[in-house]
Amino acid sequence: MIKLGIVSSKKYLRSKQSTEFFRYLDSKNISYKKLILEDKNYDNESKDNFNLIISIGGDGTALKAMKLGWSNSAPVLNLGTGRVGYLVKSFENINLQKVIKGDINNFKTRVPIIQNNQEGEPAFNEIVVIKNSPTRMLDIKIETYDQEVTLRADGVIISTSMGSTAYNYSAGGPIVHASIDSLIITPISPFTKFPRSIVLDKNSEIKITVLKNQDFSVQFDGIELQQCNKNKDLTFTYKLSANQLKVLEENNKPKLDHFLNQILR
Fold first, then answer.
1. Spatial distance between the Cα atoms of 36 and 43, rounded to a whole number of angstroms
2. How many CB atoms lie within 10 A of CB 90?
3. Is 59 among the residues known to form the active site?
4. Computed from CA positions of residues 161, 239, 61, 50, in that sequence, does the dihedral angle turn out positive or negative?
5. Per annotation, catalytic residue among 39, 59, 146, 233
6. Label partner for 220 (CA 20 to 30 A): which of 112, 149, 164, 188?
7. pLDDT digits (tens, 9 = 90+) for 177-225
8. Alpha-helix residue ranges (DSSP H) falling in 29-177
9. 201 burial via Cβ count (<10 Å: 0-12, 13-18, 19+)
10. CB contact set of 118 (below 8 Å; sequence gap of 6+)
11. Chain center to CA of 200
């Protein structure tokens, strides 16, 4: 029997679709564990081993479920109605009966970014290096393929193609088709002359060096993992992981139209 973990928040669990979903699971005698994001025991509860993760909510909930799926080496299904983006799928477009039975041939892959090869901390949308001081910009060096450029800006975004419609887009970066494995470098409010973005191939390794005595933080998918202010230069290395997370789609076509219809309406 499949061991099912369901990631959601209290507000989403009160929806009609969620109620009907759990009624379906109960009618089929399918065991599951609710992982409520607001619950203070969420971190401990999510340490169980699951072989399928389902999220109910928006894109933020989906990202948390994907991180849990990564740590469990388990496929993920994201259900809900996010306002912007295309991480979530509607309940109507998914054959839950097939999913629960383990018929997951329709799973497609998403490739996260890993910082300094620490595969316990994936970022599926983006990694952001950003200043903490409101008045001072960061002096940054960016190196890839043994070529180095300098940047003065509020920070820099390293995005996947899937994350190109998130912070990268808000910062003026390009929308990149989600089927293209790539890394996108986008500066945040640059002062020096710098291209709005650089799109690199999937084999690229990016070194970000922040010069000493600067106050900044490193964020993975909007979660701050490090605060830094050292009297020495700090270098971080980013690349696409060789490992992959399986995410269920109703088909293998990237949902670019969903995102564009959201932002153009």
1. 10
2. 11
3. yes
4. positive
5. 59
6. 149
7. 888 899 999 999 999 877 789 999 999 999 999 999 999 999 999 999 9
8. 42-45, 59-72, 96-100, 167-170
9. exposed
10. none
11. 18
